[in-house]
Amino acid sequence: MMRLHAALKSHHFPNCQKIAAELEVSPKTIQRDIDFMRDRLGLPIDYDAQKFGFYYTEAVTGFPSIEVSEGEITALFVAQKALAQYKGTPFERPLHSAFRKITDGLKDRVSFSWTELEDVISFRSAGASPADLELFEVVSKAVLRSVELDFEYRKLKGSEHEPRRVRPYHLGCLENQWYLFAEDLDRAQLRTFALPRMQNVSLTTRGFRRPADFSITKILSGSFGVFSSGRKHRIRLEFDPYAARLVSERIWHESQRIRSLPDGSMVLQLELGGLEEIERWILSWGSHVRVLGPLTLVDQIRNEADAVARLYRG
User: Fold this and answer.
1) What integer is the mean pLDDT of 265-289?
2) Neighbours of 305 (CB within 10 A)
3) pLDDT more than 70, % of the chain
């Protein structure tokens, strides 16, 4: 349509046969584009029988397009860069194709280049999961169509895969990992499944209705990452001045409360429904953090620290 617009604006009187030959498409495709430009975009197009071509009946200054601001384009670019974690995976090609289709329709509306943004905005993501595109497509279809899934799953501490029958409710990406939130029919419980640990996934014809009260926001509200046992724990952590500055720069959980201390250190308080994920996070801060409560978490961190120390003795 942009080629048609340029030809019409230049008074070249393009026709379906000529443009179709140039673009290597059928004349019917060109006719549909002209009809769309005239009927849907409101462009003043008419046909000149003597010159065997179309023309604008009045001056057209620009081609109607999506009106976007520089800020909106930058936001789109940021979203594209955030998806860079899938570079080198089966997701790279379809994602690149999707963004190309979007940006191709916007290029004429902006006054700055993508290469300029490439130089000043970037994302780098560590630990991205190399999920399988075919598996992802099957799982996403099951979620969208509300049909049951059959697959084999290996638990994190398991040695082999086990058969599962589930009703998939939600598919989410958390911390660079894709998870399926589904009702396990054999266990009659809502369970969370990591896609890389699933295999032999098959879409069934058994439909279901997702519960009206299902809320992924409510499910994740008690977790530091993905998993929640349901029982609430009041976590209190004391960070030294060095770590306090880093921790205070981010929102780690919606329940967080920060109390600054005179020496520059701080106390972070969280309300969580599980301890496993927060334990790993605490250990990543090494000696810069001390657990004040609960006592169960204090014992877990102490035992893990002793185990790490034993690895390096001698």
Assistant:
1) 92
2) 14
3) 79
pLDDT digit string, tens, across residues 196-249: 999 999 999 999 999 988 888 888 777 777 766 667 899 999 999 999 999 999
Q: Yes or no: say if 266 and 284 are a contact pair by the CB < 8 Å rule.
A: no
Residue 66 and residue 216: Cα distance in Å, rounded? 33
Q: What is the identity of the amino acid at 100? A: R
Of 267, 261, 294, 264, the C-alpha closest to 279 is 294
CB 171 within 8 Å of CB 193:
no
Mapping DSSP onto H, E and C, the string for 155-196 reads: CCCCCCCEEEEEEEEEEEEECCEEEEEEEECCCCEEEEEEHH
Region of 200 please: left (phi>0), alpha (psi -120 to 50) or beta: left
List 183's β-bridge partners, or say none: 167, 190
Residue entry with tokens 């004349």: 27
In the three-class reduction of DSSP (H, G, I as helix; E, B as strand; rest coil), residue 93 is classed as: helix
Flag whether the pTM goes above 0.70. Answer: no
Edge-to-edge strand list for the sheet holding 233-239: 257-260, 266-272, 233-239, 289-293
Which run of H or E residues covers position 74?
helix 70-82
Instruction: Please tell me the predicted confidence (pLDDT) of residue 130.
Output: 58
3-state secondary structure at position 260: strand
Rounded alpha-carbon distances, angstroms, from residue 108 to 3, 103, 311: 13, 10, 60
Is residue 169 within 8 Å of residue 148, measured between CB atoms? no
The helix or strand, by DSSP H or E, that contains position 207, with its residue range, turns out to be strand 198-207
